[in-house]
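testing teh design pipeline on a random one, pls ignore if ur not involved
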C-alpha cells in the first residue's frame, strides 16, 4: 500500500486555559508536549491505519512562550517512513484571537511505531512524495533517524570504553568541578 503525505495531515487546535499555566504564567511546556504527542499519534495512526506508539521525540525547542488565552494549532504530517516507523513533523502555532497575530512557537519530530492487534510491530505504507518540500522533509527525516540511532548507540555505551583520563579531559573548560577521592 502507498499513501501521500496529504493522507497523513492532521491539525489539532486547542484554547490555552488558566489551568495550563506554569509558575511563570505561561503555558507549561508539558501541556504542549502532551498535545504534540496526541497530534503525532493521530497523524501516524491515520497514515498507517494502526495503533501507534511514541518511540522518540527529537528537536523540541520552545522558540517563544505560549500565553493563556491563545489558540494553539498543531499541524502534523508524516515526513519519513521506515519499515514499521514513521517520523511525524509537527509545527506549533499560537493565535491571539483578539488581534489575529499568529506566532510560530516550535517545531519538532516524533518517531512513531505502528503496532498490530497483538502488539507486534506492523509494516507501514510507502510514502508518495509529490513536491520538493516533501522530498526535503523526507531527507531531513532520514537524517534525523540516522542521528537518533547514532545517539542511542553512543548513550548505550555510556562511555564505558572511554578511560578516566579522557573523561577528565572532557571536563576541561566546562562549568564543572571534579572532586573525586
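output:
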Amino acid at each position: 500500500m502507498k499513501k501521500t503525505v496529504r493522507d497523513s495531515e492532521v491539525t489539532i487546535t486547542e484554547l490555552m486555559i488558566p489551568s495550563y499555566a506554569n509558575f511563570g504564567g505561561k503555558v507549561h511546556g508539558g501541556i504542549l508536549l502532551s498535545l504534540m504527542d496526541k497530534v503525532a499519534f493521530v497523524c501516524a495512526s491515520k497514515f498507517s491505519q494502526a495503533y501507534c506508539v511514541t518511540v522518540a521525540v527529537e528537536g523540541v525547542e520552545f522558540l517563544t512562550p505560549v500565553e493563556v488565552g491563545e489558540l494553539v494549532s498543531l499541524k502534523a504530517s508524516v515526513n519519513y517512513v521506515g519499515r514499521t516507523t514513521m517520523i511525524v513533523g509537527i509545527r506549533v502555532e499560537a493565535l491571539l484571537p483578539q488581534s489575529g497575530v499568529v506566532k510560530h512557537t516550535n517545531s519538532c519530530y516524533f518517531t512513531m511505531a505502528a503496532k498490530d492487534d497483538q502488539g507486534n510491530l506492523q509494516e507501514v505504507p510507502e510514502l508518495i512524495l509529490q513536491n520538493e518540500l516533501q522530498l526535503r522533509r523526507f531527507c531531513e527525516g532520514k537524517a534525523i533517524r540516522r542521528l537518533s540511532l547514532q545517539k542511542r548507540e553512543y548513550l548505550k555505551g555510556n562511555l564505558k570504553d572511554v578511560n578516566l583520563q579522557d573523561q577528565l579531559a572532557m571536563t576541561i573548560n566546562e562549568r564543572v568541578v571534579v572532586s573525586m577521592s
